[in-house]
Amino acid sequence: MKDPRQIVLRPIVTEKTADLKEATNTVCFQVARDANKIEVRKAVETLFGVKVIEVRVVNVRGKQKRFGRYTGMRPDWRKAYVRLAAGEKTTEFFDQV
């Protein structure tokens, strides 16, 4: 198994994820592009010490950006919506929104 810190790259803290956290106890992370749902579940449980109920994974396509007459692409990335069990506490970086 890979190191959990190589699977879960960073938390995604936006208004949408704050609403999801309040309504359904779901948090969102940017994860490695080759990580599957089982690896994400194990990584979140090991890193944060919480019980995970469900993991949903979304592939996000990179946007095309222009710099004058030159065009380029931002990289594709992957995010995971992780639903925690009832009564589980999240870490403090999700409470700052």
Protein model, in words:
The structure is a single chain. Helices cover 27% and strands 36% of the residues. With 97 residues, it is an alpha+beta fold. The radius of gyration is 15 Å and the shape is globular. The mean pLDDT is 92. A 4-stranded antiparallel β-sheet has the order 1-2-6-3.
Short recap of the structure:
This protein is an alpha+beta fold and 97 residues long. It has helices at 4-7, 15-24, 37-48; strands at 8-11, 26-31, 52-60, 64-67, 70-73, 77-84.
List the keywords:
globular, 36% strand, 97 residues, single chain, Alpha-Beta Plaits, 27% helix, 4-stranded antiparallel beta sheet, alpha+beta
For the record, the CATH architecture stands as 2-Layer Sandwich
**CATH-assigned fold name:** Alpha-Beta Plaits
Largest sheet: 4 strands, antiparallel
CATH class: Alpha Beta
Give the SSE order as H and E letters: HEHEHEEEE
Number of strands: 6
Cα-to-Cα separation, first versus last residue: 33 Å
Radius of gyration: 15 Å
**What would you call the structural class?**
alpha+beta
Oligomer status:
single chain
The residue-averaged pLDDT reads: 92
Strand order of the largest sheet: 1-2-6-3
**What would CATH call the homologous superfamily?**
RRM (RNA recognition motif) domain
